[in-house]
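We now fix the convention by which a protein and its fold are recorded. These numbers are not coordinates but entries in a learned vocabulary of local backbone shapes. A record is reproduced here so that you can trace the correspondence yourselves:
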Amino acid sequence: METTTPARWGGTLTLAALAPIAWGSGYYVTETLLPPDRPLFGAMVRALPFGLLLLAFRPQLPKGIWWWRALVLGTLNIGAFFVLIFIAAYRLPGGTAATLTATAPIMVMLVAWGLIGERPRAASLAGAAVGAAGVALLVLRADFAVDPIGVAASFGAVAMSSVGFVLVKRWRPPVDLLAFTAWQLVAGGLVLLPIALIVEGTPPTLSASAIGGFLYLGIAGTLVAYVVWFRGLRQLPAGAVSLVGLLNPVSGTIIGVVLAGETFGGSQALGLVMVLAGIVAGQPAVIDRLRRRRSADGDADLAGLQPGVGVDHPEPVHA
């Protein structure tokens, strides 16, 4: 992990938070602007063309072991992840799928512990659990349902992306972050291309609104989002970055309320507070600061004691 000062920590984490916010806004864009029933085609368009565009801007091809590493990362973080997410979305109500994928921070922390030795803190795991419970309150509705295939797809997507995100920290490419992101988008898009053609057939005709939707998802929800997300993973602990991923359903809910007129009641408000509290309370920087403050308060209390006088007795204490 790169050395990050406390001043830069907040800025890096704030930039990383733009990724789940953009991903959350993608739900509304997908439902209102994109062609219906073409999720694999939509995922491929988000990845492959924009990955090629970024690669043209950073014309650096992988060399040696980085050919298969780029394929592995692109499959885990883009290709397989998108496929499993869409399977879950088709077989589960949206709230159920979002709640299951909200377990991702806990999974990322455990994978990071196993692969790169980042031992998760109890407070971070507790914050992730509180945040996941908040997501359940925020998005679960009366149509809650459990489909075994949908549940397996949700947890599979969480597992795939968790391993992929941690490998981004473990494998240091010989190129800058833009080229590294381009490799993954192109590899993931190439994985998605034959699957989309086989499952969904020929690409649909795109309207002007659909083109605009794809431009937004490709630029904001893919290029910018993955660059700042991978940057955060490179510079900060995996647990810290994964926690802000809980902003994904928060963003989707707020946009749904503001733009689509969805209902927002007391349970959703409580869930929102729990998500934000879990994100903040689980941050290692916040935990360290609270520990230093408690330690400083303890030192101040000890400094106020007079030497040779007992704490619980007014008489001098002699050796």
The chain has 13 helices and no strands.
